[in-house]
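new request in #modeling-help
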Amino acid sequence: MAKKIKAPKHVPHKRENIESEYVLETRNLGISFGGLKAVQDVNLKIKKNQVYGLIGPNGAGKTTVFNLLTGVYQPTTGSFYLNGEDLTGLSQEKINRKGFARTFQNIRLFNNMTVVRNVMVGLSNQPEYKCTLFESIFRLPRHFIAERKMRKRAKELLDIFGLLDERNNLACNLPYGKQRKLEIARALATNPKLLLLDEPAAGMNPNETEDLVNTIKYICENFDMTILLIEHDMKFVSGLCDQITVLNFGTVLAEGDTKEALNNPEVIKAYIGG
Amino acid sequence: MDLLTIIINGLSIGGIYAMIALGYTMVYGIAKMLNFAHGDIIMVGAYTVVLLFTTSPTVGIISALVLCVLVGIIVEKAAYRPLRGASPLAVLITAIGVSKLLQSAAQIFIGSEPKGLTLNLGEIRLGSLHISVLTLLTILISVAVMAGLTLFVKYTKMGRAMVAVSEDRGAAQLMGINVNSVITVTFIIGSALAALAGVFLLFKSQSVDSTFGAMPGIKAFAAAVIGGIGSIPGAMVGGVVLGFIEAIFAATPLRDYVDAIEFAILIIVLLVKPTGILGKKRREKV
């Protein structure tokens, strides 16, 4: 029998906040699975209201970076900061509550819940909708007030994404483009400071993609949002992102202004092969 | 026995099974595990009532609820939580272990002799129909409990969080839902329902021993599977279906074979519709 590869012993990270002008800053962020260094030395610096792109060929480790930033994986090296606050090693729900929200490469909605309830799940942890389990069980006034406020807010969010008419349909019955939008709406409902979009335009037709570009711009302006996105569609990336990081085999190949980075010979080589 | 009596008996037995089945189905749906110790929570509840009934029936019933909830929380924290993410088989065997542990603890601390309790709440006569107050109470309370639970799941934050976790645990976690607390609440609800079921079963059979919860537990599990495991309305439907089957066959010469018939029906349902009556279709992506 093959010997099971042991993951390197996890050294507990001591969280220390830093001074940072960036919404997201990562320092030497990396993870290895056994002997495989899936991602190493990623140093992202994302300013407020920026739309930042993370690109790279298949298997470059882009989604792994997302999984590190959202607590799905614990980094084996390095750390990351939200407005200077060290979030390394926190659990997924804590990181979400601190202000990171994400969508998934393969859409992961709560399929058998209605559209409006999907968004309401995202709203659950906002302090303005606070009501304890006790209040809910005994149906005290605060329960109804919180429920009403949540439903209202959920409808507002759905309206922005043009999903208001679909609110009582099951999420799994929505067409693909709308499911993508609902996922973004659900993520926004958690009131994040940084929105992570994992291939938001994947599988979309040109019309839907254009629509999505406008939606992302709208979110950035109206929600005062900072966005980090993974994408393969270069037109989409250059139309939205002013800065990008290019990953290849888990390491940073190029970073900086989108045009320069995309014209970097190393990047072209990685994409076209050579 | 006339038809009305059968219906009333069916509803009362079905209500009890449904309450137990809800515990199985919710834990399965949300924690993705089969809690085979669930039946023994019934036994804990029944024993508590028997031991405290002479003090005061109310105290007995309330203590049963509280104790069952505590046992549920402790079992989940001590036995199942450390195994989160372990293989389903390991969790299943642990659950069987917990079940044996509870049964043995009852034998050691209370004794293996059955403990009895006599209770007669009288009966109501409607023309030629005699209905015991206990049967009526069972129906009323189980219907109320199920209605309350449905409302809870549908219209509260915690209820939505439960559905979200059962749909996609990972995505729910990334939306800021604390999965551990959702699972704890699930065990609390399941154990409280099991305690109630234990009280009614005890009043019906008037005696309790350490394996008191085993048979109703396994039957309610069958009910949950018949209804579609993981589905809350499914557990209610499955419980009532099983209750009716029991009531109908109890009125025929086949009454000694009721258990066999019930499990045979389970097998038939699994053959014809493996996901149960209200079970979700499983879509496989290729």
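bot summary: Chain A has ten helices and eleven strands.
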